[in-house]
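Form 7-S
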Amino acid sequence: MINETKNYFFSRLLEDTFGYFNVYDFLKLKFRKAINKSVVYSNSKEFWDSVFNENSLLSGQIVKLKDFYLSDFVPKLPGKLWTLESKKEIKEGYNEVIATTTDGKVNVLSLEGKRKIINAGYGSVRLKPQTKGLYCTLLSAVSPDNWFSDAGIPIIVSKSVYDEFIKSSKQGAPWIEKLEGILFLNQDYSFLNSIPKAIGSSLSKETIDLLTNSPNLPKAFIYIPSPLNIKLRTNNTHPNVVAWTTFETRNINDPLRFTYSTFNPNKKGSLEFSIDFINNYVRDIGGTNILTDFDGKIRRLQSKASLSEGIKIKDSLVFNGIMKTIDNWIDKE
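Output:
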């Protein structure tokens, strides 16, 4: 009886360990890497240039990132900042200056200028991690030469990988010593669909369209199934993050408006300053209701739609068949 108990205990321990580290997925990824040469990127621009070049990347390729940092704040429109349309809107938005702060350091943009900047891709969100299913949450890999989360690369991780991220992120965005994952490009079950759905929760169709309007924007992310595929080092810095919101006004001709403020999670008082700025701006401009929040882990704004409610998407609609797809790729070789 004792021997049976021991055998049961150790077999369960083995199952739990292999399950937690997703060893099977790790081995399949390694096998895929042996078949096709992996692609290595050293900055965000290289990655997004490849994504927009339709002939240079394929779903299922193994991607490696070199000298990146990992943040749980991700772009609300991943990849948008790297488009020609975005560059045009940013230039036009920053030309809409209506005033300058008393210290002369900050230009105040018009309402139209703010709208253009937000529509160009500025604005980060932090999603509430999931506890069940194949995926856990969405992170962002950020390179030092584009040191803000809005310019990052979407990284979807399993729970075991997210646990490693949490352990390494006590002081800031951890440095990625090693990362290799599976590229998913323009897949129907892309986890990226969860961002507009979460932001648009309980809002009108017109508001959702305004927040998620990204025609011809490719969906791209890297999936990290196992902590064996990533190695993180603690770091005491963090990319800048753009807090933002949409709010209603009593102006019939302009009922929806945007505002935003940049903060750094590692700088004391920076987040609080941005939250106060947003709340005061909405009040001073005559806003009635704040519609969206940017943080799903901790509610920051008293908004109509809250990211902290979680993402109401079934696993079958998001990652059903991911590993089956990889199996099929391997079988074809």
